[in-house]
Structure formats: structure tokens, C-alpha cells
Specification:
The structure is a homodimer. Chain A has helices at residues 2-13, 37-40, 47-59, 77-86, 122-136; strands at residues 20-25, 28-34, 67-73, 90-95, 115-118. By secondary structure, the first copy, chain A, is an alpha/beta fold. In chain A, helix 1 (2-13) packs parallel to helix 5. The longest helix of chain A is centred in the C-terminal third of the chain and has 15 residues, at 122-136. Chain A starts with a helix and ends with a helix.
Chain lengths: 137, 137
């Protein structure tokens, strides 16, 4: 999650909503990404989407069945749907996102075999978000 | 929808699940895409995702508020989430997808101002899908 926070900080520094993600297979980082929605003018350019694409490319297969994604904020519906398609083993996230997070609909959006851990380094992940939105005001 | 079917045929011809999408602003096509999941080894490479990215790039803005997407098959959860972020005006789809479509969860996954029309050229859109899966067997 420390690496995901470094990714989120990159987003913060580019005036993007600070979300970062890292995908790990065993002890190897196979994908990382940070939010690039404004930079790329593309609503699909979330941190998780970049990380999924990068990990599949690094592993040479579209499924991430033996992988864990560490993401600083609870994934949205789009990213939950993408993670479901990837059949990822585990999702570990930091801060919750009650407004936009997939949990408004529940684990049913994910693949049935995906395990979820939440609240990891929560306050650090959340602080990046609150600092970002405070800066906008 | 005829143009979306042409896109879906391209996917079919590349041994991809045959889904095609076209995004229109006024009378202008601003984005198109077909499923490239196998070609790109990337579960995020759905037709709608390509079309959203292309349309935002063509229009120079991330929101598609005055656009309609024509897609041959009911969007999945990931694509519904992406379409929600895009605030697209209208979704027109052909065939339903009871197993993977967003309608298992309902319109709540979409942006509240997005209008949906379903069943347009349904049998042609569906035929591509049934022919594809028959070919696999």
C-alpha cells in the first residue's frame, strides 16, 4: 500500500484526484497506475484501469487470478467491473468512498472468488483525498 | 446501430466476442470501437471503452453529455460505470445480456440523466453473438 500511496501522490502532484494502485503477483509488482482522467481527458483512466492493463501486459495473460491489487481508495463501479473481469484474487483498499464506491451495491459486483480487505493505511489514503479537495476550494 | 454492427463484425472476424459501439454527437460519429480483449490481452478493452476514449479525444472534453452511444450488446457493469462517469445522454443497445449486463443491477449504475433505449436491431446484434459462440463449440 505504501507503493500505491506513492502513485496517488503522483496524481496529487498533477492536480488529479489522488488515487494510486499497484498490482502484485507473489512478491513482484506487475502493474501500477495513478489517476490520469484530467491529463488524458478520459473518464476511463482510473488508477486501477491502468494497473490492470499493465499487469495483464506484464504477465502475458488477461486474468489476474493470483494477484492482489492495492488501491488507495475503494474502487468505483467501473473499476469493480474491470476487477471482476480480471478475476483478481484480492482487493486491498485504503479509504472508503461512500458516494462513488462499488460498496453501494456490494460484493456482488466483484468476481465471487475475489477477497476484499479494506481500511489499510486508511488515514494516509484519506488524507491525500481531503487535502486535494481542500486545495480546490 | 448499423455502424455499430459493422464494428461488431470486425470483432467477430478477429475471433473476439462480437460487440461493437459507435458514439454520435449530433450527426457526427465521434468515436467507435470493437471488442479487443483477446487481441490486447486486456479485460478492459471492451467496445464501449474504446468508443468513450475515442469520443472524448475527438471532442476535447471528458464528458459526453450531448452524445448517444449505439452498442450492439447491453453494456456490462464496467462499461455502465464508465458511461456513468461520461454523463452520456443516451445509450441505445441491441441485444440483451442477462448474465453479464448491467441490468442485473438496474439503471442505478448509470448517470441519473442518461436515457436508455434497448432492442434496436436486436436480432441482428444477437445473431452475431450466437453465431460466434456456435463457432467456438
Amino acid at each position: 500500500m505504501r507503493l500505491a500511496i506513492i502513485e496517488a501522490q503522483k496524481a496529487f502532484d498533477s492536480d488529479e484526484v489522488p488515487v494510486g494502485a499497484v498490482i502484485v503477483a507473489g512478491d513482484r509488482v506487475v502493474g501500477r497506475g495513478h489517476n490520469l482522467v484530467e491529463t488524458l481527458t478520459d473518464v476511463t483512466a482510473h488508477a486501477e484501469m491502468q494497473a490492470i492493463t499493465a499487469a495483464a501486459s506484464a504477465l502475458g495473460g488477461k486474468y489476474l487470478q493470483d494477484c492482489t491489487i492495492y488501491v488507495t481508495v475503494e474502487p468505483c463501479v467501473m473499476c469493480a467491473g474491470a476487477l471482476a473481469w480480471s478475476q483478481i484474487s484480492r482487493i486491498v483498499y485504503g479509504a472508503s468512498d461512500p458516494k462513488r464506491g462499488y460498496n453501494r451495491f456490494g460484493k456482488v459486483l466483484l468476481h465471487p472468488r475475489t477477497e476484499v480487505v479494506s481500511g489499510v493505511l486508511e488515514s494516509e489514503c484519506e488524507k491525500l483525498m481531503t487535502d486535494f479537495f481542500a486545495k480546490l476550494r
